[in-house]
Amino acid sequence: MSNQCTYTVRATWFGDAEVTLQVDLDILTPELAAEINGFWSEDESRLAAEDGNVLLAVVRMFGLAAIRCYMGNGGASFGPTTDRYHTAAVIEHEGEGWPEVDSLGILITAAEVSVVDYDDVTLEAV
Question: Kind and range of the H or E element at 55?
């Protein structure tokens, strides 16, 4: 029996950017999460933000990576799904620091990520 949790990661400053992540805690162990978190700079800041919970720090960091990836690619709208494609695409986009999709224990099951469009910006002479 798998030990799974579901989390939503949102960009709080931008109302149209969130991903839903299914996390398998039998795969994403505290040891693996510590290895991933330690690979990237600012690891202590992430730990502090999550009250020392390295699992939450890594889940939040992966959600951030997914939102950034989707924003850079024109947005995303999908789900619910169990297709590993979306998670694998984010890992590939990151290039390093993340294990392969089957070894990570995080699956992107849904995303609603908009990007800033023409009507979202204003022009002002200064």
Answer: helix 54-72
Q: Which amino acid is at 95?
A: G
Q: How far is CA 30 from CA 4, 25, 55, 56, in A?
A: 14, 9, 6, 10
Write the pLDDT tens digit of every residue in 28-57. 999 999 999 999 999 999 999 999 999 999
Half-sphere exposure of 101 (CA within 13 A, CB side): 16
| pTM more than 0.85 | yes
Residue 80 DSSP class: S
CB of 9 closer than 8 Å to CB of 17 = no
Distance between CA atoms of residues 65 and 34, nearest Å: 17
